[in-house]
Specification:
By secondary structure, this protein is an alpha/beta fold. It has one domain (39-229): Zn-dependent exopeptidases (Aminopeptidase). 43% of the residues lie in helices and 17% in strands. α5 (137-147) links the parallel β6 and β7 (155-160).
Length: 242
């Protein structure tokens, strides 16, 4: 064995031992892929209470915008016959460990965390979606591509991240950054109820399509638009339990 290949062998071995010693989190080996079977969506409104998140003059407090989008998203998903658990539904502080406990307590679920972004550079704008486990990549991509259908949206990509609510998740988990509060246009939009409704709508569409297949959400929306007495049902009648 040459000196070089011996060194290489050592490197490989130490890498292997290192991986064993640090222990792999559930997201690397133990995440359950429930992306095609989930019946529950844990909707996480970022920040809250004493934790404002970002706070910018254009967009205001992040915790307010996240709660509003999360609440709208939860309503839309409920209308598609999914069970919803929110980590918070009022302006209260929830530690990250508690959010993880709530997300992992739901069997056969996925987790969607709502945030808004912040930068010192006001020109920066666009959507980002984050994941940690391989089981979450498709959902992250689908959400990102649905957000890109919003007019004038900018794509800052789908990325992996070590955020605790993603790293410690037992089930597929994503975190959506719904634009920059530090940007004049996106910050202004984040304050606008109609725009928040659109954000929630695109994310809900991605989640419903991920679960039930492409076209389901759109079909339901147009069906719901016809009979005004029936209210804004989003799932097609075949998915409804009457
Ligand atoms: Zn945030």
């Amino acid at each position: 064995m040459s000196r070089l290949s011996f060194r290489l062998l050592l490197l490989v071995l130490s890498g292997f031992l290192g991986a064993c010693a640090t222990g792999r989190g559930p997201s690397e080996t133990g995440t359950k892929d429930t992306s095609k079977s989930f019946s529950t969506v844990v909707v996480d409104a970022g920040h809250g209470g004493k934790d404002n998140g970002a706070y910018r003059k254009f967009g205001g407090a992040e915790k307010i915008a996240t709660l509003d989008v999360a609440t709208r998203l939860a309503r839309k998903l409920r209308e598609s016959d999914l069970k919803i658990v929110m980590t918070r539904s009022t302006d209260i502080f929830i530690p990250l460990e508690q959010r993880v406990a709530i997300e992992n307590a739901q069997k056969n679920s996925i987790f969607v965390s709502i945030h808004f972004n912040d930068s010192r550079r006001r020109g920066i704008h666009g959507f980002e979606t984050y994941y940690h486990s391989a089981n979450s990549i498709d959902l992250a991509r689908r959400i990102q591509s649905k957000l890109m259908t919003i007019p004038h949206s900018a794509n800052r990509g789908v990325h992996s991240a070590n955020f605790r609510v993603l790293r410690l998740a037992k089930y597929p988990a994503v975190l959506v950054e719904c634009g920059f509060l530090s940007n004049r246009l996106e910050g202004g939009e984040a304050r606008d109820a109609e725009y928040r409704e659109t954000l929630a709508d695109r994310i809900a569409e991605a989640v419903v399509e991920h679960r039930y297949g492409a076209g389901v959400y759109h079909a339901a929306k147009s069906a719901a638009a016809q009979p005004p007495s029936e209210g804004p049902g989003l799932a097609p009648s075949s998915l409804k339990r009457d």
